[in-house]
From TrEMBL:
A GO CC term attached to the entry: cytosolic large ribosomal subunit
Source species of the chain: Rhizobium vallis
Its job: Binds to the 23S rRNA.
SUBUNIT field: Part of the 50S ribosomal subunit.
Pfam families registered for this protein in UniProt: Ribosomal_L27A
Protein name, UniProt field: Large ribosomal subunit protein uL15
UniProt keyword rRNA-binding present: yes
GO biological process: translation
Ranges of biased composition (kind: Basic and acidic residues): 1-13
Gene: rplO
SUPFAM superfamilies: Ribosomal proteins L15p and L18e
Ranges in a coiled coil: none
Gene3D superfamilies to which the protein is assigned, alphabetical: 3.100.10.10
Single GO MF descriptor: rRNA binding
Similarity comment: family membership: Belongs to the universal ribosomal protein uL15 family.
Lineage, top ranks: Bacteria, Pseudomonadati, Pseudomonadota, Alphaproteobacteria, Hyphomicrobiales
């Protein structure tokens, strides 16, 4: 076999359908678009249009709101912190705060603060200073011999 002898398997490729090229082609005249009307024309996008009837998104009431004062915390699990310590990116003896987590590559940006959740296991004894922590996370950190300092009041009960 030579490079100039390589070809696709029989029937693996299909030639494209040339639409609107005469009645003998089988896809002439309307070119597979059915008959006349708005949808047979080009440039039609009528998502959500219900033929003049009041659309569903206008029939239903508006609901909810977006609280512009809500805090947007970065969520970090204990397992992720332990993985960073094991990899040598975080120093367990130093204070672990938002800046240390950012330097270690655990978080990208601190936003309104860091909130620690209890996913995963923590073996290292660490001193952590964060905006918030869940109760199970605080228990796990203290069980490992560490301490937690929360900068703001904890969020609503979980």
């Amino acid at each position: 076999m030579k490079l100039n002898e390589i070809k696709d398997n029989e029937g693996s490729t299909h030639s494209r359908k040339r639409l609107g090229r005469g009645i003998g082609s089988g896809s002439g005249k309307t070119g597979g678009r059915g008959v006349k009307g708005q949808k047979s024309r080009s440039g039609v996008a009528i998502n959500g249009f219900e033929g003049g009837q009041m659309p569903i998104y206008r029939r239903l009431p508006k609901r909810g709101f977006n609280n512009i004062f809500a805090s947007d915390f970065v969520v970090v699990s204990l397992g992720r912190i332990q993985a960073a310590i094991d990899a040598g990116k975080l120093d367990a003896k130093a204070t672990v705060d938002a800046a240390a987590l950012k330097a270690a590559g655990v978080i990208r940006r601190p936003k309104d603060g860091v909130r620690v959740l209890a996913d995963g296991e923590l073996k290292a004894k660490i001193t952590i200073v964060v905006a918030g922590a869940s109760k199970p996370a605080v228990e796990k950190i203290e069980k490992a011999g560490g301490t937690v300092t929360q900068l703001s009041a904890p969020a609503a009960a979980e």
